Amino acid sequence: MKDWIQEHSNGQEDPTYDTLQGLVNQAWEAVDERILTKLIQEMPERCQAKLLVESVLVTNPALGPGQWNKVAKLPCFTAFLANLHASVGWGGWAG
């Protein structure tokens, strides 16, 4: 959304409120409905992934905030992601 607005703002550094509101509305109109539907369908899995990461961080005090790379390599999380990708049919996400 941010990138779309920047690309379509004609280089305006400080757009007016009305201009920005118009750009935001246009950006939402440009979003393919299939993308939104897919995001909605994936939300339960995304929430489960977030809860899993939080539980791993809580049960492993050595892994503090910002330790995503370590959590992502844990067997329980990699297995979860494999199941998620298989069920959703999607190769990745920006969690």
What would you say about this model in short?
With 95 residues, this protein is mainly α. It contains 5 helices and no strands. GO terms for molecular function: nucleic acid binding.
Any overview of this molecule?
The protein is an all-alpha fold and 95 residues long. The protein has 2 domains: 1-31, no CATH class; 45-88. Helices cover 71% and strands 0% of the residues. The protein is built from 5 helices and no strands. It has helices at residues 2-8, 17-30, 33-59, 68-72, 75-88. Helix 3 (33-59) packs antiparallel against helix 5. The longest helix has 27 residues, at 33-59. The protein is elongated and about 50 Å long. It starts with a helix and ends in a 7-residue tail after the last helix. 1% of the residues are buried. Residues 91-95 have low confidence and may be disordered.
